[in-house]
Amino acid sequence: MVYQRSVDENNPLNLFDTSDNQSNILYVGPELFRKLIRISYHISWSDFVTKYDHGQSFGIQALKGVCVYVDRVSDVEKVASLLQQLGYNENYTFKSFHNITASIHDAVVFAIALPIVFLLATIGHVLLSFNAYLKVQQKDMGILRHFGYDESDVFRIYAYSISRIFVMVGVGVSIYTLILGALCIPISHLYYTFELVAFLCILTLVTYRVIISWLLRGYVGKGVLELLKFSKEFE
Questions:
Q1: Which helix (H) or strand (E) holds 76?
Q2: What is d(CA 124, CA 106) in angstroms, rounded to the nearest whole number?
Q3: C-alpha–C-alpha distance, residues 148 and 85, integer Å
Q4: pLDDT digits (tens, 9 = 90+) for 110-124
Q5: Residue 187 has pLDDT above 60, yes or no
Q6: From CA 95, how far away is CA 158, in angstroms rounded?
Q7: Residue-wise DSSP of 171-214
Q8: Which of these, 52, 77, 72, lies nearest to 64 by C-alpha position?
Q9: Nearest to residue 144, comparing CAs of 161, 133, 127, 156?
Q10: Count of beta carbons in the 10 Å neighbourhood of residue 173
Q11: Of 126, 158, 178, 198, which has fewest CB within 10 angstroms of its CB?
């Protein structure tokens, strides 16, 4: 079958079979087929279907389906779209996977987005919690500054306390992750667990640096009177 001598110039799928043994066979699309039936037999399409289904052949053979071979996989969607535009009810293997592919894509996006949202929410909660903690500690900071401690001394006192908390959290999370990974992940893929532990440790370190460098230094840098005044108002 070749793309030449098309009966309908707007329909590239109206084809002549040019093989030697079937040179008299004409393949046409559904719209042109209906038109030819109406003109040739002076009969409506519904009447033709009824009579044809009851055994009257009219000297023609109506095909229930035509298989279209596509050389390249990348062209399957284009050919299917063209067939659909021309009125054909197309059905192909890849079509069955459309919904599955979309579902898998949505599941993957959700599986990636959920942990990210959870991590961001956790980090936000930790930052707000330490901000509230340091805000309450302003009175103690003011008292320490009043008794002769400078900014660096107060900073080291609170930085040491906060660092202890993060070290314990980091160690606990790492041990828990390693144990869970050893139980759930095959030994051949155990390195994923170490990558996850490394990622969580880096995330914990970044959060710690934000609290130390931004929140704590911001509170410690306030004047003594400002620290004590805020504490009095807070009480």
A1: helix 76-85
A2: 26
A3: 84
A4: 877 888 888 889 999
A5: yes
A6: 62
A7: HHHHHHHHHHHHHHS-GGGTHHHHHHHHHHHHHHHHHHHHIIII
A8: 52
A9: 156
A10: 16
A11: 198
In the beta sheet, which residues pair with residue 27?
Answer: 15
- Beta-carbon contacts of 144 under 8 Å, excluding residues fewer than 6 positions away, are 153, 154, 157
Q: Which pLDDT score is estimated for 20?
A: 52
Instruction: Answer yes or no: are the C-beta atoms of 14 and 20 closer than 8 Å.
Output: no
Q: 7 near 26, Cβ under 8 Å? A: yes
Tens digit of each residue's pLDDT (9 = 90 or more) over 142-158: 888 888 888 899 999 99
**Tokens standing for 188?**
């051949």
Structure tokens at 46: 């519904």
Residue 71, SS3?
A: coil
**What are the residue ranges of helices labelled H in 66-137?**
76-85, 98-136
The two three-digit tokens of residue 67, written as one number: 């298989």
- Classify burial at 169, counting beta carbons within 10 Å of its beta carbon; exposed 0-12, middle 13-18, buried 19 or more: middle
Tokens read off for 18: 């040019």
